Amino acid sequence: MIAEKMIFILVIFGITLLIATYLTYFERKVAAFLQDRVGPNRAGPFGLLQPLADAGKMFFKEDFVPSAAERALFILGPGIAMFTACMTGAVIPWGNSLHLFGRDISLQVADVDIGLLYIVGFVSIGVYGIMVGGWASNNKYSLFGAIRASSQMISYELAMGISLIAVIMMSGSLSIREIVEQQFDGWNVIYQPVGFLIFFICALAECNRAPFDLPECETELIGGYHTEYSSMKLGFFLFAEYINMFISAAVISTVFFGGYHFPFMQELGLPANVVSLLGVAALFLKIFFFLFVFMWIRWTLPRFRYDQLMHLGWKVLIPLSIINMVLTGGFMLLKDYLW
Amino acid sequence: MQSLTNRSKLVVNKKMTFWERIYLPAIFGGMRITLRHFFKKNKTVNYPEVKRPFSPVYRGMHVLKRDENGAERCTACGLCAVACPAEAISMVAAERKPDQAHLYREEKYAATYEINMLRCIFCGLCEEACPKEAIFLTDRIVPASLEREEFIYGKEKLVEPVDQRIDISLRQIKSYPQ
Predict the structure, then answer these.
(1) DSSP 3-state of B66
(2) Which domain range does residue B91 map to?
(3) Which of A84, A179, B58, B86 is the most buried (most CB within 10 A)?
């Protein structure tokens, strides 16, 4: 039983890292296609070995620590970013259970009762990696990036949490598997379109993705919090960002788009195991769609100005999410009262 | 005041409507444009494998021509070196021996002929100055190098090989049909 879990954890870990690696490739390809270019095509067929070449480059670069930097924290920063990014995948149900060798194998590392809270918690710890790394660099640009990152996280986490509360009120549970199971006959996005929109915008901000990539913005802050980083420490920061992106897409797919559910899954009359595997495929299809949308938005929109970012967070998204929550509660009361 | 070009626009700082202020329609509009480009054919030329044809008047690396019998046309008169605004050309003249008639077309020839490609501005004045139709600029590109010395091209790089003549017919068209 334990061995089974260990293997599953390793598989999930491996898949997460693999997808994060190839996201860098897809990002560059999508960017190229959106700009009528070809993108990386030299390393291997269609440039498929490009991520390996990048990783090789990262490993062989000089691992430099500036003399004025706070050495311990400087090393700790990328560690925290990577650790928190890898932890969040644990509570996501990657599929329904498989029936193998006479027992059910759950395709989820841990079905904790507070799954959603766990994810939100870990994502918010993730900002410490950026914060600590940026501060420890002892560079004004890094510090700017770190301050921007933390204030951005604080402003957008509120709206994100409140938009999730509306979903949690509807499903009555914080367990992600429970939320997915309840979307069997209708995805949450149908009942919570505004909540989805708020969550999506906040997810972009939480991942430091364009148009909210103020913490790193190359043009103003020369890379922001990771200005002083080189070699695999920089690699960890960039990698953690892509893992976060993958997990965000997974959370959006599970919480708002039915997770491993797909239309007509019972009507097909297939064996339960096949339906489960198709469900996993459906979930990954949804995840990849959202990853594409993330990239699509990045290569469409310009970066927000800092005051616009704060304005959108505090004066638009938070009131909107509170109204959304109150209306959801009101409708639920009305429903109980009428039926 | 009357505008001269009629291209100036009146700037208005009007308040945005609610629909404009929520930005979403504009964002979706932008995303539609980028998605259209996603399916467009890209315009990249994969350079070392695919080469774009140059214009016939392109001025690249020089060639020292041979005549139809394979003898060098250059007589080391030095007019190209005089014409050169960058002073990139230098040469040493020599007298032809009786047994070298198949090598050099006239009695005087260039024993050494050097063009410094780092000085050369590829203006083509050497080609215009040459009375013997010996030097031409071609559509070949001077390759990059790590050493400055390697950019001084001697006769071994400039004179065309007897068996691989370099086509300069496009450079000799005097007028192009409009």
Answers:
(1) strand
(2) 62-158
(3) A179
Q: Does B40 touch chain A (CB under 8 A)?
A: yes
pTM of the model: 0.78
Question: For A224, phi and psi rounded to 5 degrees?
Answer: 60, -130
Of A32, A41, A299, the CB nearest to B34: A299
Contact B35/A at CB under 8 A: yes
Asked whether residue B170 is assigned to any structural domain, the reply reads no
Rounded to an integer, what distance in angstroms lies between the CA atom of residue A2 and that of residue A238? 32
Residue A162 placed within a domain = yes
Domain that holds residue A126: 68-338
Q: How do the pLDDT tens digits run along chain A, 339 residues long?
A: 777 778 888 888 888 888 888 888 988 888 888 888 888 888 888 888 888 888 888 888 888 888 888 888 888 888 888 888 888 878 888 877 777 776 777 777 777 788 888 888 888 888 888 888 888 888 888 888 888 888 888 888 888 888 888 888 888 888 888 888 888 777 877 788 888 888 998 888 888 887 887 777 666 777 777 788 888 888 888 888 888 888 889 888 888 888 787 777 677 777 777 778 888 888 888 999 999 999 898 888 888 888 888 888 888 889 989 999 999 888 888 888 887
The reply to whether B34 touches chain A by the CB within 8 Å rule is yes
**CB nearest to B31's CB, from A33, A38, A297:** A297
CB contact under 8 A, B42 and A34: no
Domain-located, residue B132: yes
Residue A312 is classified by DSSP as: I
Q: Please name the residue ranges forming H helices in chain A.
A: 2-34, 50-60, 71-87, 115-136, 140-171, 176-181, 188-191, 193-206, 218-221, 231-256, 272-298, 306-310, 318-338
The tally of domains found in chain B comes to: 1
**Which residue among B34, B41, B44 sits closest to A300, beta carbon to beta carbon?**
B34
Contacts of A296 in chain B (CB under 8 A): 31, 34-35
Q: Is residue A155 part of a domain?
A: yes
Give me the total of CB pairs closer than 8 Å, taking one residue from chain A and one from chain B.
35
Within 10 angstroms of residue A284's Cβ, the number of other Cβ atoms is 18
Confirm whether B41 is domain-assigned: no
Q: Which two tokens stand for residue B73?
A: 């046309």
In B, minimum Cα distance to A294 occurs at B31
* Residue A83: strand, helix, or coil: helix
A16 occurs within a structural domain: no
B128 token code pair: 């215009």
Alpha-carbon distance A297 to nearest alpha carbon in chain B (angstroms)? 7
Q: Answer yes or no: is B14 within a domain.
A: no
